[in-house]
Amino acid sequence: MEMLQLRYFQKVARMEHITKAAQELRIAQPALSKTIARLEEDLGVPLFDRIGKQIKLNSLGKIFLDKVDVALELLEEGRREVADLGGLEYGSIRLAMTTLDRLSEPLGEFLTLYPNVNLQITQTSTAEMARLLDAGGIDIGFSALPIELSGIASAIVLKEDVYLAVPLDHRFAQRDSIHLKEVGDDPFIGYKEGHVMNHLNDVFFRKAGISPKFVCQVDEPGAIVSLVRTGLGVALFGCKGGEDAGYKLLRIESPACYRSYRVYWSEKRYFSLAARKFLTFLEEYFK
Predict the structure, then answer these.
(1) Cβ-Cβ contacts under 8 Å for 148 (sequence gap 6 or more)
(2) What's the pTM?
(3) Which end of the chain is more exposed for a tag (fewer CB within 10 A), N or C?
(4) pLDDT tens digits for range 63-83
């Protein structure tokens, strides 16, 4: 039994689809099928139920997958501990975030300081982030939404005020602050349903007692800024800006609108030297 067989089995077991698993593993589908067949032959039992071209992990496969997950995670932790003994330049960090824009600059600076650190980045939902942390699939998560799970520790690294972004010709553009309910009837630009920022903004709208009329909902902050500049509507925005940016940011007097970004890590998993260094770096960077 080889480690490669176990990794291939793990992927197929989670996806329950040979062709899709082969695509993710970047190997030929027939080669993957043969690898799984050899593994079942070595074990002497079938791990999957096969119905036509479909496969489904059976009860024996589920038991074996639990053990494979533990074994591969232990091997990965051992590799990372050995790498730590060799120094930070051999380290790696598996990082997951709900949004990329807040970490793009600090990531660049960190890699400038430690260019040999192997950084693996995933953009995902907070729920999936929690699952990955618990399973040992990532080292650090970064999100503005809370993760409440036993064994998961956290630290706030960034607090930012949320402003109301308005076009320069908006009726309130000459003001410095505003109550959010004053723009309850304005056209709003926001994030798409399911976006992490959409969840946070909904809390502010409820506290203000308004139901915004969205004229456009997008994925990225840059798109929101562009649309505010054109005069399409107003938007909640967390980044600083000013008239030279083509829009005006108004401080929101009520309700209190701010976001707290946290880093999360598992207390049950090995926390590498590189991951610890990155966590300390983020805390200092955002100060």
Answers:
(1) none
(2) 0.65
(3) C
(4) 999 898 888 888 877 776 776
